[in-house]
Every structure is written in C-alpha cells, then in structure tokens.
Amino acid sequence: MSSPRTSGADDRHVRALAELDVPLPPVVVHRPTMRVLDGVHRIRAAELRGESDVEVRYFDGHEEEAFLLAVQLNSAQGKPLSLDDRTAAALRIVASHSHWSDRRIASVTCLSAKAVAVLRGCSTGGGPQSNKRVGLDGRARPLHPAEGRLLAGELLAQDPHLSLRELARRAGTSVATASDVRQRFLQGRELLPTRLRGGGPPEDGGPRSHRHDDGGGSSGTGVPGGFGGAGRPGSPALLESLRRDPSVRHTESGRRFLQLLSIHPTGPSEWQRLVHDVPAHRADVVARIARDYAEAWLHVARTLESNS
After folding, report:
1. 133 phi/psi in degrees, rounded to 5
2. 97 CB burial (10 A radius; 0-12, 13-18, 19+)
C-alpha cells in the first residue's frame, strides 16, 4: 500500500512536534502490513526526543480501506496533505470506488465535490462504472436517473409483463420510479418528468407517443438541452454518456471537448438567470460574443456531422 504523502516527512514539522512538552497523540498502524497510516511525523519526533516507545492504534481492514483511512486522517489533521497529494488520492479513490458519490470522495480527501467531479470526468480509468453512487449517508442512488428511466422503458417495450421489482432491478432504479415509468409507458406519456428533460415545458398530462424520434434535428421541446419525443435524450444525457466513454476520455482532444461542453448550462432557466445578470450597458458586447461562439460551435457541429 503506497502512502498518500509522496513528499515524505517534513523536518521542520518534526522538530516542532519534538519541542512540544506534551504527550503526542497515538499513531495509527495497519496491522496486516505494519505500515504507518497516520503519525510518521510523530514517530520521527519521538526518535528526536530519544523516546523508544509510542502509543499505537491498530487498523485491521483491507489495504484499500487502509489507504482511505490514511488519506482522511492526513488530510484533516496534523500536517495536512498537499493539494497534489490529495488530488492524486482522489484519482485513486475514483478508480477504486467509482460507486462513491463526488461528495463522499470529497469528504475523505478534503477537496470540493466540484473538484472531484472534474477529476472523475478527466479520469482515464477504463474500469466498469456502477449505475449507482453511494453518498455520505451510505444510501445508493441512481447515477443517471434519466438513463434508468429510458432503460426501463426499453425493457417494458420488450416485455410489458415484467414485475415492478424485476423492472427496477434490471433498470437500476427504485421500485417507485419503475412504477412511475410503467404508468407513463401505458398512458403513452413521456417517460421523463420535466426536471429530467433539461427544464423543458411542463407536461400537459395529455397522451404522447413513447416511440423514439428517428429524426436528427430539433429536440422537440423548443429549448436548449431538452428531450425530443418521449424519452429521446438531449444534451444532459448525451454529455453523461460521453463522460463515461473511454475512447473519448483517453485522448487529449476528447478531454478538452468534455471540459468545454461541461461548462455550458443545460437548461433555459439557468441561461435566463445568466442573461438577467448581464449589465445593460454590456449586453450588446455579450450578445456579439455569444453569436461568434454560436457560429463557431455550429461550424464544429457541421464538421463532425459531415465526418460521421
């Protein structure tokens, strides 16, 4: 098990601890390997004092669990891990615990959840990805609620007689969500509620076809980031699928595209808030820049479509 502290002990911190006229807290040791998880500086300080014994607390978990504990202890107390060490630790945890939520990993590494999300998006790990994430409260939640609903719809189209529990298990959703999808499916309504359709117009309650639109144009909602037809995913779901595609994440240009695409708001309400906050005397300038960027993105879209 490698230590999360790549730079080794800090001599100045060791001397400062050695000069304290108080007993030092116990160190934490991984019993199976006898590696120090927390307290290297305290051991060095005890040696500098001429002491031959230190108080020890043992941890008996697996090596990956020991690494998590070492990161958590060294990030929050004593001499904190450097930003580089915490970033490297977060990348390792993203790879080994991909089912953990960004907030849960952030709580261990003392990074922000947004920073963990960026690291996860740029990670080149090609391991299997869980359809759920486990949060700080230990509860597993669907990673992509929209995709779970869409998959449930596809399963119902293949076998309308699936039980709710089996539908929920195979689609990776809750039983309540599976029940809602089934009702929408039977009534011919859109499988995705408004909140999962990129802020599209509220449902009018009327019947709508749940077949996929095979056209390649408008999303059908009249707003950016919406969903076309019943369950046809727009930008949010498509972007999530790109983030999980190793062929995209493994290239520098692919990661750059993900970064550029990820900064765009996905719903009209967020765009409206941004527009509202633009000072009136700068609105024309922002509008001109937006048009230039829109034309550039349109050129990118046309180029990609011609190459597909």
Report:
1. -125, 140
2. middle
